[in-house]
């Protein structure tokens, strides 16, 4: 790790230990992001996106467990070896905050919006006046009527408004990084666009780095500076968003792109992705891959570096036995 690295995970693995089996949800994921990036993490349901986010926030609960080989570096510190109390005091909310999946339900309907801000700031010793002032400023930044919304109860707000309240709340302690898990997924397309613009503005104007998790590659293509593709808990491809979208290297990324009209080209070129389960032997994508080679059926690919792009695929490995 260089000291300039903003966030880096190294061999991050998380498993859920069930009574009879172990579900490896995140497998050996190594990636890094620089300050100021909007990193889009994409992958279908069950690919490990939320588990990866929760690992960075040290919010994995039993039966989940972060495997001991895992490392997460953030601004020169290794997060997994920090004392729990230090992590809570120095990192959580203050440096890295979170907009959880299905988060609209995480607002308490019996508390006014402003009380959620007081609650969040409580353990960090800010005065009530300071929190009120900051909350109003943030509500305005996410394009809500600050006075009215601060006094409202969550049930009086629409889904899009609640989501914007949560984004404002995540910014309360001026974090360097906000992790947003499916932050627009339950909203209509117009509201989605509106919120994505707000997120872009936050990134541009106050420089907050963002990890934006979504199963929708067109949202990621629109918003992200960098893209990381997960499949069955493994990193399949990672690189600059524009390059990944224009010239996807992994067959899975290529399939994801050509299954979406808005970025895959004309309607005639749209192809649905072949269905199938992740394989337990060989490449996890082998049952669905349209570039399948015999070699992929039994061997597990490593991550190869292709001109700065990371790709887990034998098409790019210099394996003579292929
Ligand atoms: N609390 C849990 N107990 C057991 N298994 C879990 C738990 N949470 C997640 N998993 C398993 O871990 C894998 C990854 O789940 P995760 O929720 O991280 O995926 P995801 O990509 O966020 O999916 P989605 O798009 O549906 O939110 C899945 O196989 C899931 O069943
Ligand atoms: Mg999820």
Mean pLDDT across the residues is 93
Instruction: List the strand order in the largest sheet.
Output: 7-8-9-3-10-11-13-12
Q: Which range best describes the helical content: under 10%, 10-25%, 25-40%, 40-55%, 55-70% or over 70%?
A: 25-40%
- The CATH superfamily name of the largest domain is P-loop containing nucleotide triphosphate hydrolases
* Relative strand content: 15-25%
Strand pairing plus helix content: what structural class? Answer: alpha/beta
- Tally the helices: what do you get? 11
Domain ABC transporter: 7-257
Keywords: ATP-binding, Nucleotide-binding, Transport
Organism: Acidianus brierleyi
Pfam family, one: ABC_tran
Protein model, in words:
By secondary structure, the chain is α/β, with parallel strands linked by helices. The protein has 2 domains: 7-232, Rossmann fold, CATH 3.40.50; 248-322, no CATH class. It is built from 11 helices and 13 strands. Strands 7-8-9-3-10-11-13-12 form an 8-stranded mixed beta sheet, with helices on both faces. Strands 1, 2, 4, 5 and 6 form a 5-stranded antiparallel beta sheet that branches. The longest helix is centred in the middle third of the chain and has 18 residues, at 189-206. The relative contact order is 0.13. The model has no long low-confidence stretch (mean pLDDT 93).
Layout of SSEs?
Elements: E1 7-17, E2 22-33, E3 38-42, H1 49-56, E4 64-66, E5 71-74, E6 77-78, H2 84-91, E7 96-99, H3 113-122, H4 128-141, H5 146-151, H6 159-170, E8 177-181, H7 189-206, E9 209-214, H8 217-223, E10 226-231, E11 234-240, H9 241-246, H10 251-258, H11 261-264, E12 304-306, E13 309-311
Parallel strand pairs: 3-9, 3-10, 7-8, 8-9
Antiparallel strand pairs: 1-2, 1-4, 1-5, 5-6, 10-11, 11-13, 12-13
Helix pairs in contact: 3-4, 4-6
The structure holds adenosine-5'-triphosphate and magnesium ion.
Magnesium ion binds at residues 49-50, 101, 181.
Pfam family, one: oligo_HPY
Keywords: ATP-binding, Nucleotide-binding, Transport
Organism: Acidianus brierleyi
């Amino acid at each position: 790790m260089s000291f300039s690295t903003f966030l880096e995970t190294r061999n991050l693995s998380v498993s859920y230990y069930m009574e009879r089996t172990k579900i490896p949800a995140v497998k050996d994921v190594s990636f890094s992001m620089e300050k100021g990036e909007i990193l889009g993490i994409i992958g279908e349901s069950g690919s490990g996106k939320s588990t990866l986010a929760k690992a960075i926030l040290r919010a994995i609960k039993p039966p989940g467990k972060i495997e001991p080989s895992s490392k997460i570096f953030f601004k020169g510190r290794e997060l997994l070896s920090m004392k729990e109390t230090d992590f809570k005091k120095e990192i959580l909310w203050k440096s890295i905050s979170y907009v959880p999946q299905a988060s609209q339900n995480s607002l308490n309907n019996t508390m006014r919006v402003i009380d959620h801000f007081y609650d969040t700031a409580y353990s960090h010793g800010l005065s009530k006046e300071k929190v009120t002032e900051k909350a109003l400023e943030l509500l305005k930044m996410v394009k809500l009527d600050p006075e009215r919304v601060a006094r409202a109860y969550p049930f009086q707000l629409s889904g899009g408004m609640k989501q914007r309240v949560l984004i404002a709340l995540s910014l309360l302690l001026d974090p360097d990084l906000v992790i947003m898990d499916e932050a627009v997924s339950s909203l209509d397309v117009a509201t989605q666009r509106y919120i994505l613009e707000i997120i872009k503005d936050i990134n541009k104007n106050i420089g907050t780095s963002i990890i934006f998790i979504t199963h929708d590659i067109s949202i990621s293509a629109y918003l992200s500076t960098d893209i990381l593709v997960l499949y069955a808990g493994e990193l399949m491809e990672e690189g600059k968003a524009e390059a990944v979208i224009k010239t996807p290297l992994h067959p899975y990324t290529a399939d994801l792109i050509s299954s979406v009209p808005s970025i895959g080209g004309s309607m005639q070129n749209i192809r649905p992705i072949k269905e199938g389960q992740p394989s337990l032997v060989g490449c996890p994508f082998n049952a669905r891959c349209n570039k399948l080679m015999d070699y992929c059926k039994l061997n597990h690919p490593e991550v190869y570096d292709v001109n700065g792009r990371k790709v887990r695929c034998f098409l790019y490995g210099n394996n003579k036995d292929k």
